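Reviewer 2 asked us to include a model.

Predict the structure of this chain.
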Amino acid sequence: MGDDSLEGRMECLVVDLGVGVDYDKCHELQKDLVARRASGQIPNVLLLLEHSHVITIGRDGQDMEQHLKHPREEIERAGVGVRAVERGGHATYHGPGQLVAYPILQLASQTNPVAAAKQFADRLELVAYRVLAEYLPAGLSVGSSRAFGVWYGDRKIASSGVKVEASGVTWHGVAINVSTDLTKFGYILPCGFPSEVMASLQAVLGREVDMNELKQRFVRHFAKEFNLTPRHIAATALPELGN
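Predicted model (structure tokens):
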């Protein structure tokens, strides 16, 4: 399915930032790329990465303490950062073994960025669903308004949370639990659910999953959904784009 609302170049630069990516540094990188995309300096960008341990709480979780099962100071002493961010949604955990995808895409300028974000998040979840369906051909579902995300039965494998600026540029994105340490979700009520609801693809399959292979499948389905031509570049090339 293509999207006629996408503007500018239909090329999408794919950048693999690797494992253990610091959340704060990546957040600043996203903000920089959003500004440069909005001004037309760079084409669309898709960041792929695995974060170091961090809990993020979106703008729907304004009362942070309601979403943490332990005091923030205790969680951070255990080596897990806690950050309030501007994406939609509530609390989630990011860490090694979880594929995070942050698309910096130029959509048409938005009169209703909140509605645009909901539509965009739905499409990202559809991409995640199609990727996971290559491993789990039965039992998957895409969440409803009560239970966003991609589910395998009553267990949640993928989550989304995005923001669309008035300029129409997207950021934040979707996360797929591949071989994630699910015990880290025990610090929070993920999206308002008991932490036990979270699952990983590896745990469901009972075998190891090749992350690089899964990334390739994600890029393929993402490019098809948004009618983009992916071009892989090194992370070191990012600062030079548009200069």
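The radius of gyration is 17 Å. The helical segments are 23-38, 72-77, 113-133, 201-205, 211-226. We have added this to the supplementary material.
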